[in-house]
Amino acid sequence: MTHILVTGGAGYIGSITVRLLRERGYQVTVIDSLERGFRAALGDAPLIAGDLRDIALLDRVFSSQPIDAVMHFAAYKAVGESVANPLRYFENNLGGTLALLAAMRRAGVRQFVFSSTAAVYGTPDYTPVDEAHPTRPESPYGESKLQVEHMLRWLGHSGDLKAASLRYYNVAGAARDGQMGEASAKSENLIPVVMRAILGSGPALKVYGTDYPTPDGTCIRDYVHVIDLAEAHIKALEFLNLDVGLEVFNLGSGKGVSVLEVLREAERVSGRSVPVEYAERRAGDPVGVWADTRKAASLLGWHAQHGLAEIVESSWQWHSTHPAGYQQ
Length: 328
Ligand SMILES: NC(=O)c1ccc[n+]([C@@H]2O[C@H](COP(=O)([O-])OP(=O)(O)OC[C@H]3O[C@@H](n4cnc5c(N)ncnc54)[C@H](O)[C@@H]3O)[C@@H](O)[C@H]2O)c1
What we know:
By secondary structure, this protein is of the alpha/beta class. It is built from ten helices and 13 strands.
């Protein structure tokens, strides 16, 4: 049975991927510091609670069990926090990955699936954005992910590593049964913010700018269902059986959705109105961004199967039944 080490597996995307991996017959071991993740999100999946930067711990993990591949979700991900405290982001996102890659090399593990981000592109010159688009991250968070990709490219060249770097767009939605989802009360992503506004556990939704040159005047983004993302990780793992160095893939729905479309969908699904405050445009927000996903379609055989309705329906099911997230 293929044994996968999942870093950050107690977090939002990692935990849902762990569940899918186990359903598909993979053996899984999770390593997570639980600083921003939840033990309860793992059910009975084996967890090693610890930090990736603990080199001795990593060596113990790799020497105590035969790991075939690593899925690396563990990182900090808040753009604003990274601007305020860049070193924290480089220490964790770069330092953690470096420690992990070195431990993999010592253990002879070569297959690596990495959680990257569309933030590596910065404000795009064109949309849909393909993988050949220049990379100009606008935050230490995006920069930390791009630096990891550079490391992976060189390790791929040297023959030490076979890696897929998955550049996620706006990840949203929850598990199909509504029992697992994004639990952080601090999430700044649009859909959790909308859900908290509806449920009264957060402030009114602030819509920044209604005069953009889009059909309804609000910004357009690409939302990809977390279930589709989990599926893409398994396809990436299968892809790594081929003779590859590093390949990067956009993971998005390939469709643009406006802020007001999300808001209306949330009102339809919940049957409630979203408290809204309209505000001025925010500096630096691009008008419209969505992914060109043809590379993932042709090389991984992957495309997003779930649209906005399923994203919002599953999010509503999760947030309305778990207003305080996971019960620890
Ligand atoms: N959620 C998104 O929209 C999105 C978009 C693009 C990329 N990503 C990337 O996907 C990955 C997963 O994101 P998520 O939304 O599940 O985040 P999350 O914060 O829910 O999960 C990250 C997990 O990693 C753990 N972790 C962090 N640093 C660690 C360390 N040094 N050692 C051990 N564990 C550590 C945290 O405790 C947490 O459980 C991240 O790398 C993130 O940058 C997320």
